[in-house]
Queue: 2 jobs
Job 1
Amino acid sequence: MSMLHTVNKSPFEKDSMNSCLRLSADGSSILLIEDGVFAAQEGTVVSDSVKEAMKSKKVYALQEDINARGVQGKVMDGIELVDYAGFVKLVTEHDKVQSWV
Amino acid sequence: MSMLHTVNKSPFEKDSMNSCLRLSADGSSILLIEDGVFAAQEGTVVSDSVKEAMKSKKVYALQEDINARGVQGKVMDGIELVDYAGFVKLVTEHDKVQSWV
Amino acid sequence: MKLSIQVNEGPYQHQATDSAYNFTKAAIEAGHEIFRVFFYHDGVNNGTRYTTPPQDDRNIVDRWSELSAEHDLDLVLCVAAAQRRGLVDEGEQERNKKDGNNIAPGFRISGLGQLIEAGIQSDRLVVFGD
Amino acid sequence: MKLSIQVNEGPYQHQATDSAYNFTKAAIEAGHEIFRVFFYHDGVNNGTRYTTPPQDDRNIVDRWSELSAEHDLDLVLCVAAAQRRGLVDEGEQERNKKDGNNIAPGFRISGLGQLIEAGIQSDRLVVFGD
Amino acid sequence: MSVTKKFLYVNRRAPYGTIYAWESLEVVLIGAAFEQDVALAFVDDGVYQLAKGQDTKGIGMKNFSPTYSALGDYDINKIYVEKESLEARGLTLEDLQHLVWEDEDEDWAEKDSIQVVTSAELADLMEQQDVVLSF
Amino acid sequence: MSVTKKFLYVNRRAPYGTIYAWESLEVVLIGAAFEQDVALAFVDDGVYQLAKGQDTKGIGMKNFSPTYSALGDYDINKIYVEKESLEARGLTLEDLQHLVWEDEDEDWAEKDSIQVVTSAELADLMEQQDVVLSF
């Protein structure tokens, strides 16, 4: 397994999601947490670029942060939801972690 | 005189400059401070949108912050540089101030 | 003219408090009256006397304290924000049963009403934040 | 597996320390060893015992202290970052001639080498920040 | 203090990722006692503050979203939400809480507090304020 | 401790607006004593950290940019700057400090420390690391 990237900022507010998409290798995984989970939402101005990335990368989002922000019903197909236990599992299943703080 | 807007974040990093341009009225003034001064630079991916805004709004940048970041020689034409005394003067010459923090 | 300043970030991490300080100083030099400097959010961390920055760096806390002493500046830390973040004066120490306090000279802790009052009483309110 | 955690932001202002806490707890529950939690930048502000959050809110500092007591967690505040921001233990109090200290139970102050060591000794290092 | 000023609170950040949304609401609630002319604007990620269905149990933080529905009782009934911000996020008014107030001049008729406005309309509204606090 | 790991420091923020650039450099300098395999990447606004001509007198902060030229003395000579980040900001290698190191295997010949790499090249480099610290 390769690298796990985490993104914790809103794709509408900061450049970190964009930079993560640009600088993550094919086959790597991206986990959206905190305000980063807005990138998991269907029908936004960034949805297309996330879908494009999902062709070569696996995208996860933290269920707890999705729920907190009231976007439970809006997650796009193909994004896998994980809880904190799943977050830990992703960290151990990948060789290393890069946080796009 | 109308409103003075201040922007202190890099236009490459955060959405605040964009929001300021979208939500400031014609005839208002924009002062770039801190990392916001990168929006004053010539030849970047945001220069065109700043130039477009300058047709209806006056744009200033804080000299001290420009110097600190080494972009002294790159400020685009039409942007007026002010020091802290000039910042104070702008605040008093406008009716109110909105900080796009 | 009567000005008030709001500072939303703590010392060193963000430039907000440096910018606020430089602005406040320039405003005083230009002859304006500073009604109040209100520290909100992490800004309350500017009011701790426990800082010891490196010798070749500015001391952000001392600078505010000195400006306050010279010009009788009203430096107010929001009480709700201060409680969350661990800024304590003698009154708060007693109220919350703490074993000490860490507030720096020139600062005082008070309510959010002081910010609203600053907005009402001042000709301009300028916000510095992240 | 051996994990280390880095926390770059203080309590309440950013979710980083909440996320780090929830992650650390889940990692312990999954049977992993936590080699160290290193607090850098404003993250050092998590280590103050002077916080008094509202009664209906979580106490972020106490939560870390309790987790440390239960699981013998090594909670390290970076000394350089702590000095800038006013986090003081007994040693720092003496060294920098302060009239008190504000460090919470379970935390200790040490050098940046502890972060590098965590990177070397741990199987994974996970960073939480702004 | 008999001055009455127009205060606008501009909320631009999502809830929970940072505390700005909550500490902004604390200012609004305290400020209500000062009998100023208060309005709130929600733009950019600030529109998520009003999202329905927030459930914070999993992150261990207090869900403060019910507090917005109390704003009407504090005579705060000018709540502007920027249309462009909603659209960029694929949201509509339906995704937000239904905030109302009771108009004592019209026999306590219940009225909507939220008005969806365009960027241009909001820019004009901002120009009419005396004090702008941005969070 | 005889383990040698590949450490990559990713610098994404401009200097002075926040302290991340400076406190990242403090980690790099301390970390040099641990004899790990160290590389630095400058992407996004991080490229401004290396800009020539920084003059901080007016803002009252310490100018730490001269410290980067000492990195070669600490055997830190793999400094990657992302091409796309430079271009988006209208910058070229000419706008950055000229950082060098002396290669003891080649009679202390002076060599360039900075390598401009594409996004794709940097993504590959990141995959080869053991520990990534992002600032």
Note: Residues 6-134 of chain F form a domain with the Hypothetical Protein Ychn; Chain: A, fold (CATH 3.40.1260.10).
Job 2
Amino acid sequence: MDNIRKKDLLWMYRVMKTSRCFEERMEKEYLEGKQPIFNIGSGPVPGEMHLSNGQEPAAAGMIVHLTKNDTVTATHRPHHEAIAKGVDLNKMTAEIYGKKTGLSKGKGGHMHLFDPKVKFSCGGIVGAGIPHAVGAALANKKRNTNWVAVAFIGEGAANTGAFHESLNLAALWKLPFIVVVEDNSWAISVAKENSTSVPFNCTRAKAYDINGYYVKNNDPVEMYKVSKEAVERARNDEGPSIIEIKTDRYLGHFQGDPELYRNKKEVPSLIKKDPISKLRKRLIKANYVTIEELDTVDSLIIKEVNTAYEFAKHSKYPEPAEALEDVFC
Amino acid sequence: MDNIRKKDLLWMYRVMKTSRCFEERMEKEYLEGKQPIFNIGSGPVPGEMHLSNGQEPAAAGMIVHLTKNDTVTATHRPHHEAIAKGVDLNKMTAEIYGKKTGLSKGKGGHMHLFDPKVKFSCGGIVGAGIPHAVGAALANKKRNTNWVAVAFIGEGAANTGAFHESLNLAALWKLPFIVVVEDNSWAISVAKENSTSVPFNCTRAKAYDINGYYVKNNDPVEMYKVSKEAVERARNDEGPSIIEIKTDRYLGHFQGDPELYRNKKEVPSLIKKDPISKLRKRLIKANYVTIEELDTVDSLIIKEVNTAYEFAKHSKYPEPAEALEDVFC
Amino acid sequence: MEKTLEKIKKLTGSKAMAQALKQEMDIDDSIFIMGEDIGKYGGIFGSTSGLYDLFGKERVMDTPISETGFIGAAIGAAAEGLRPVVELMFVDFHGVAMDQIYNHMAKIHYMSGGNVKLPIVLLTAVGGGYSDAAQHSQTLYASFGHLPGLKVVAPTFPYDIKGMLIAAIRDNNPVVFMFHKTLQGLGWMDQLDASFGEVPEQAYEVPLNKSKIVKSGEDVTIVGVQMMTVEALKAADILAKKGINAEVVDLRSIKPIDKETILNSVAKTHHLLVVDEDYLSYGITAEISAIVASEGFNYLNAPIGRLAIPDVPIPYSRVLEKNVIPNSEKIVNAVEKLVSV
Amino acid sequence: MEKTLEKIKKLTGSKAMAQALKQEMDIDDSIFIMGEDIGKYGGIFGSTSGLYDLFGKERVMDTPISETGFIGAAIGAAAEGLRPVVELMFVDFHGVAMDQIYNHMAKIHYMSGGNVKLPIVLLTAVGGGYSDAAQHSQTLYASFGHLPGLKVVAPTFPYDIKGMLIAAIRDNNPVVFMFHKTLQGLGWMDQLDASFGEVPEQAYEVPLNKSKIVKSGEDVTIVGVQMMTVEALKAADILAKKGINAEVVDLRSIKPIDKETILNSVAKTHHLLVVDEDYLSYGITAEISAIVASEGFNYLNAPIGRLAIPDVPIPYSRVLEKNVIPNSEKIVNAVEKLVSV
Ligand SMILES: Cc1ncc(C[n+]2csc(CCOP(=O)(O)OP(=O)(O)O)c2C)c(N)n1
Ligand SMILES: Cc1ncc(C[n+]2csc(CCOP(=O)(O)OP(=O)(O)O)c2C)c(N)n1
Ligand SMILES: [Mg+2]
Ligand SMILES: [Mg+2]
């Protein structure tokens, strides 16, 4: 597979698969306490839930090139990046369950995951994470490291003022910064052609005199290659990049989204070319690994995911009075 | 002069000259009550004062193509556009003097001039006028007019989020909208190369799939041509444009600016190629008009400006209690 | 307003909103709606449901995620004589567009000496209680109430939602219209009786600057707004059983505040508790307390009670969130303390 | 703090700020400054004057006009362990960056369960009185005070400016540091005695959560902040001649409010006037009145007085502006009314 190290490909397979497993489980667990009548505030996992099934290549193909010194900021749809970046899965799951053992002791929830140990953060305001990554890149440059900072965003976020201001700053200061635009065609119900005046956001790199890359077909291997170049450039002080990847949102914007705005045939056709299944086949076909070996990987993943859910479910809730703590340090 | 109607050139000369006269007078009047010690809050014209001397070509070369049905939004440095757009000079001057006869009965001041009769407005927040012009363009399109809306901004404003969001909207909705970027090299003390990651903001048109134009050398005639094309395109429903013109700020950012950041030789060299003197010479050389005729124009301008200042100075102040009026209608 | 019985239907809050918009759009071509997901989706909280099909994409316009751009565009369009209704999906996002809202929408009428009118309605969803955490659960009533030039309303019941929205649309000033998610009567949230109520079919206006006594009583005045009104009514039932007869005032208007109704009530009850789903400091409890402490001081027989979110961001976990948002139980406790002084 | 006499110099507010920044930057490499015109220009209101020459453009960074971008970048850099000081040139511009300020800077510590610390100082210039009109004259104290997660301070005198800025820089929480333009002692604005004062040369801290009694008295408590403290002191002089002995409290901290100092003062004087250069509704006068009406009710012998900008945008013309910003004369009148009840 084009000179990509087997180790990297397997790593990508593993994190994509972990994310998928984690989210397929979440899809079910989320419904607990929400049936027969769906009530967003009910059950052990209340609140909004944005799943990334289908979008795993964006996270894996980029983050395979990062270490824990590199920073990642993500969005309201953060699980695939969190998992790829190595966020503690037990604590992340516990956080989503609102437990005291969670990353934020239950204060953050699924849209507000913070794991400073692996330099991961995300948030619920579209576009807002981009300047945070610019700031991390600035810190990296100031401290003479070769660490990079990557902001993951949806294609909808590329129309926010934050996008423009951040890209201009990063380019002006030649920061080790990359923005990955996950074009899943939709911003909730608004299709890209109804939100974005250019077909490809990577074109917008011209507005900052930086590099723009496009990855077609939700392809993790292409994403790997393009990201490698962008990360190397960033590490070598050659400035920021925009990478746009065409990816796919299999589920509703959030769980419970009736998706009346979307053609019912769209998702089945997307799932047919699922990148995880495709990568699995490619790995086997290239003789990188046997079916049995991958089955072993898969079962380890399932175990890891199960462990995380067990941990979360069996953890304690915080005491009500803890709500008043942690405003200031 | 390249097939430009004499009438248009004379109009441009006249408004440029009017603006220059108006501002040269303002430069002096502003100091009343501020000497020997400069106090920004003192005198009959208190508060910040941003003059546009040197930047007249941007206003004249564009607005010559507009009618009073077309909308203009301007910035904290609004006089050249206000005058070109036909804002009532008496009322505008009275407003700057804080008088009851002013455009806004003294409530707005120099940064907040509103003359809905000629569809002119401006404001003190960098970038904020851009979406207002987009909204006007949207209204124009909704009402099936062929009216256009033009936002004038400084090159510093091209790095605001408002710029990006507005351009994307205008392009997406194919609105009769134009943004004119007056590149006077400075945003207060910050030079363009320290604020902007591309040499030319017109390049940023690519980020929206619209037309971008560049006008060199603060040239009103070039500005005329480029604006003509952009306005025609807008009127013909061919979408928005970005025009950047290299222009010159002769004075400090505001009156009282010590300009310690700026090479003392810069301004004298700029004034040598003053666009108003140059246009005067060109008009005469092309035999469009005689020196005497232009002298007559000039003296009429001086009279008009004098009248405005007289009107302003002799007008009454509002009653203090009027401060409480006009919050709501 | 004359009610004709056969023309009254029971509607949810969201249907009341959509009906108000429809009826006004029917009679006034210059009204159009902009916002994220307000087209086919009908608004994430149902504020525009059905309108896209009725009026098409020219009048019910989905936008990119560019709140500064499209809220700013509403200002420009309003200055040209149109009457935009624009939705900021969650009030929590106001920070990305606040300059347009408070430096321009709120001030241009004044800065222009009254020459530019901006008949804009800014719809925005407020409120927590369903574990949507710190960035999607706020009400921020006071963040808007503090700034001059905006009328800010927050109706509770479907009847008021329709009437105040119509009044807001017809008003020639910018009006911030806050609707509470839980009071929209959406199928996928808590089902409350309060979110379903009688709404006349014809168009009518409810004034934008009046509070309403939703339960009268003699012993204590409880001022609430939206969900806090609902909780106050629940509390009043419990208190009644304990022999305390509470008067409940539904604030409805955040700015301007209807001082008269509140002062008259306190003149009668001599006790005041203000309940707010916004943050404590510099919030509704502050402003109403101050009005009464300065203009109704002599009516008071006891210290004023304040109940609000205790100056912490809204936490995710249900147990934590429950602890910070006031509810009927906390109101009962607070009132008991108040009247026992 | 021990004062050593020979080490005290008279400084203006702006020099006190620049000195605080210099001294802290000298001892801590992780501090850097970002903002518009804070480099060679030294800050439009002199907050960073001289620092560019001392520390160079890596540590004193001019930025584009991209407040969301660079204030957001300060958050990202702080999360990595740096200590950014970031300037929002006028507080009036907060709307273009408010999302970064209140949804992220203010909440990330909480939302991360205390795991992410954001030691950021947000400098911002406030205040009117020099005809800078509606978009450049505000204080917006309460707009910031309302939101949980920010410490918000507004010192008046050079001594406090230096000490509170040092405390702010050393604090591991985000601090909004508001400096009043007129109190910076700039050569091109009104010259006030208050803007020039004794400042020890060595570094020292003034706590971020304490008010200060700047004049003691028995008859009435006047709470002010920044220019309103200065006007209150002037008013106190006039009142003294009329036989009214006012106590003046300089609030200093907008959030959290030092309740104790205020309540103790009112316990002594039994009369309270709050004066604010921010808008009336939901402002400082509201919050402090509410605190006293709920926690110091029995101390009060008269209704609480409130003096603030009467819910209008700030007009340009001097005669109009003078009518809306409170001053010593209005304070005297308000106090006289108050104590005569
Ligand atoms: C500033 C802001 N505006 C609106 C929203 C509401 N919202 C949440 S996600 C979303 C769509 C985002 O689309 P995109 O960036 O493409 O990401 P995706 O959901 O497709 O992953 C919107 C509009 C928000 N959270 N923040
Ligand atoms: C949002 C915002 N940020 C900062 C300012 C302060 N400010 C006023 S004018 C100006 C410079 C503007 O530069 P440019 O856009 O190039 O216009 P010019 O002054 O050169 O005409 C700045 C930073 C402001 N008014 N608004
Ligand atoms: Mg998307
Ligand atoms: Mg400029």
Note: The CA atoms of residues 35 and 301 of chain B lie 28 Å apart.
